[in-house]
Write a structure and sequence with these properties.
The chain is mostly helical. The protein is built from 13 helices and no strands.
């Protein structure tokens, strides 16, 4: 890496050689290629539906955005490095959309009923985003209640089992019997045990989070070194202080892993619960559109799920890196 003073004494051509990375143009070139193919190749004669402008507008916007980022990369080293590293993946993603557009709209190799063209999927987001947002809000509320209830219950149970031999004697066998059973298997019991399907769904999601959180929390608590407790005893620490000042902080890495595993399990349970009885929600929306044979809406719902769940996990990792700063980068997302 050349220093600032060394770069200052170089000519314009040498400076451009340093700051310019050819890879930063890959996403823009891929978007331009997709746009040209979409505009120049006519639609299949068998495609009788009205042509929509959404895919054209999206490709034009992607071309402009990637071009602007490439220009910014000329003057910002961090942006240049990050964008150059991700450029092949971004270009490949645009190419994949281009191939899907060719296989559906241009050549109709794939049956349009089950594999709609990209413009029809984009149309769903443009015209139905308020309803999608409403369904996402219902799912977020249901998932939030279940996650909080399951995490709090799991951490509490894990601390009791990991700390106390008495609690471990009575509760551990129950965990080993009930825990491995998939939470969705409890649907018949939950539906007759709770007053509403919403309450039953919260219970199922909480159950999915509770088991891995309990197991990993108890494991982390029980593996804390005895030397820590011996030193704290000499300093006059009581039982509560030993648990919450020593055991829980030391077990935090295991606790977070348990919550992550429980969160991933809760996503599956959420989708199943919404498909079986909860009105509104993304899972309900996908099942409803599938019954209506509206597969463009189905794919739009799947995209919403993928983006939303990925953001949730990313946010949880941010919290983890904040709480466990000394372990940042050990587990990456």
């Amino acid at each position: 890496m050349q220093t600032v003073n060394e770069i200052a004494h170089l000519g314009i051509r040498e400076k451009l050689t340093i700051v310019f990375r050819v890879k930063t143009l890959i996403p823009t070139l891929s978007a331009v290629l997709a746009l040209l193919i979409h505009l120049l190749i006519p639609n299949s004669p068998r495609y009788t539906l009205k042509a929509l402008p959404y895919f054209t507008n999206m490709l034009f916007a992607v071309t402009v955005i990637t071009g602007v980022v490439a220009i910014v990369a000329l003057f910002n080293e961090k942006v240049r490095q990050d964008y150059a590293f991700k450029s092949w993946f971004i270009g490949a993603a645009i190419l994949l959309l281009n191939l899907l557009n060719i296989a559906t709209l241009k050549l109709m190799i794939l049956p349009l009923m089950y594999f709609p063209s990209p413009e029809k999927i984009i149309k769903v987001f443009v015209e139905e985003w308020p309803f999608l947002l409403k369904c996402l809000g219902y799912s977020a509320r249901l998932l939030g209640y279940g996650l909080i209830l399951g995490a709090v219950t799991g951490i509490t149970t894990g601390i009791l089992v990991g700390w106390s031999k008495g609690w471990s004697y009575w509760v551990n066998p129950i965990i080993k019997v009930i825990g491995p059973i998939p939470s969705t298997a409890w649907i018949p019991v939950a539906l007759v045990s709770f007053a509403t399907s919403f309450q039953a769904s919260v219970f199922l999601i909480a159950l999915a989070v509770w088991f891995p959180t309990t197991v990993l929390t108890s494991s982390g608590i029980s593996n804390v070194k005895n030397a820590y407790f011996e030193v704290s005893s000499t300093l006059g620490a009581n039982t509560v202080q030993k648990i919450f000042r020593i055991a829980v902080p030391d077990a935090m890495p295991s606790i977070f892993i348990g919550i992550f595993n429980g969160t991933c399990s809760s996503f599956i349970t959420l989708m199943t619960a919404e498909m079986l009885g909860v009105k509104f929600g993304i899972g309900w929306y996908i099942n409803w559109q599938r019954e209506m044979m509206a597969y463009a809406n189905v794919y739009a719902g799947l995209i919403v799920i993928a983006v939303s769940f990925s953001l949730i996990i990313t946010l949880m990792f941010k919290v983890r890196d904040r709480v466990l700063g000394w372990q940042k980068g050990v587990i990456k997302w």
